[in-house]
Amino acid sequence: MTDLAAPSTESEAAFPWGAVWGQPDAVATLRAAASDPASLTHAWLITGPPGSGRSTLAHAFAAALIAEPGDEPAMRQVLAGTHPDLTALRTEGVIISIKDARSLVERSYFSPSLGRYRVIVMEDADRMVERTSNVLLKALEEPPERTVWVLCAPSEADLLPTIRSRVRVLRLREPDVDDVARLIAQRTGVDAVTAEQSARHAQRHIGMAQRLATDASARARRDTTLRGVLRVRGVGDAVEVAAQVVQAATDDAKALTAERDEAERASLLRTIGVAEGAAVPPAVRSQLSALEDEQKRRATRSLRDGIDRVLTDFQSLFRDVALLQHGRDGDLINRELDGDLRAVAAAWSPQRTIVVLDQIALTRRNLEQNVAPALALESMLITVASGRTP
Q1: DSSP string computed for 49-104
Q2: Does residue 366 fall inside a structural domain?
Q3: 147-153/168-171 β-pairing
Q4: What are phi and psi of 115, to 5 degrees?
Q5: Residue 230 in contact with residue 317, Cβ under 8 Å?
Q6: Do 30 and 126 belong to one domain?
Q7: Which stretches does DSSP call E strand in the chain?
Q8: Cα–Cα dist 310/314, whole Å
Q9: Is the pLDDT of residue 262 over 60?
Q10: What is the per-residue pLDDT for 127?
Q11: According to the model, what pLDDT value does residue 11 have?
Q12: Looking at the structure, do residues 102 and 16 belong to the same domain, yes or no?
């Protein structure tokens, strides 16, 4: 097993690659591309599961492309997101808008101002609907000589075939639970047991594992939610648990966004010269309204992402049930619920478990299409209670 808690190759240790964790093969590929203009592909797609480091790798690649070799100040400027030759988009809404996509395309045709290349990084490229993807096609197919596109998504299947045909795909590897646990223990100082449990429950998602390891309330909330699902026996239980999940996700989203929202509002008011506590002049209310609209979109995405994480936990629960039904108990994610899982595995048929897993996957897709979260969860939990789709 490779010790991924530290850079695993000489190339990975070199700046700006040091922040990229556990992806030596990908680092080697991109480092070679950045150093050899003759072999550089001008459109890339970095794929990997959430938490695998797609965006970290994309920005390290951008730094290596834009800055001259050895120019660490310029590389740090790229990594900080302030270099004029870097354009990066990470949507904080549910989808990437056509307006944002067109803005990226326009920027892609500018010549580099200071660096060797202009780099366009699009995180969450899977959040483009078809008409937005079509905006990118020509820019990806025929980019200017010194422009490089770097898209990030969980998998190739999340993008249209027309996009996939115009990019070079770089697939990231999934780390082992033990590797993630060691990294989390080193970063946070938590004990080995908590680090291992957090890495396992997060299914190797580094960011989520770190949060679970350092937030006892998040660990308790996850445990309560999963035990609640296992107790669902009818429509009443389904409605109650669905409401609890939505409320918990809502509270979580507010906690994550409230402080940032207030800081953004205060900064905007200072910029336009409005003293703290003073009335907002009518002439600038439209700017404040635009900011509030953007914050609402961000809150909607944060809520849906929170519910999606809960559904990922549900999938892990019934995946464990399926393993037990097939005589495999050495790779359970939710070992702490062993007794409850074995009871469900004995009471259900394997076919019923598959029906529930399919319904959870369908619920995740429905939420991406803006279905009301409470209704989607209630429908899914009724399937858990009955073994049949509503």
Answers
A1: -TTS-HHHHHHHHHHHHHSPTT-HHHHHHHHTT--TTEEEE---SSS--HHHHHHH
A2: yes
A3: unpaired
A4: -95, -175
A5: yes
A6: yes
A7: 43-47, 86-89, 118-122, 147-153, 168-171
A8: 6
A9: yes
A10: 86
A11: 39
A12: yes
Residue 300's CATH number: 1.20.272
- Looking at residues 118-147, what average pLDDT do you find? 89
224 shares its domain with 359: no
Residue 116 lies in a domain: yes
**What are the residues whose beta carbons fall under 8 Å from the beta carbon of 309, sequence distance 6 or more?**
208
Q: Please state, in angstroms and as integers, the Cα–Cα distance from residue 153 to each residue in 23, 121, 150, 200, 362, following that order.
A: 16, 11, 10, 23, 20
Q: Are residues 166 and 213 in the same domain?
A: no
Q: What is the pLDDT of residues 138-166, one digit of tens each?
A: 889 888 889 999 999 999 999 999 999 99
The answer on 195 and 138 residing in a single domain is no
Split into its structural domains, the chain has a count of: 3
Check whether residue 25 and residue 162 sit in a common domain.
Answer: yes
The answer to whether 23 and 57 have CB atoms below 8 angstroms apart is yes
Range of the domain at 215: 177-230
Q: Quick one: DSSP state of residue 7?
A: -
- Summarised one tens digit per residue, pLDDT across range 240-257 is 999 988 888 887 777 767
Question: What is the three-class DSSP state of 355?
Answer: helix
Residue closest to 61 by CA, chosen among 103, 105, 120: 120
164 lies in the same domain as 206: no
182 in Cβ contact with 205 (< 8 Å) = no
Residue 248 lies in a domain: yes
DSSP tag of 14:
S
308 with 163, same domain: the answer is no
DSSP 336: G
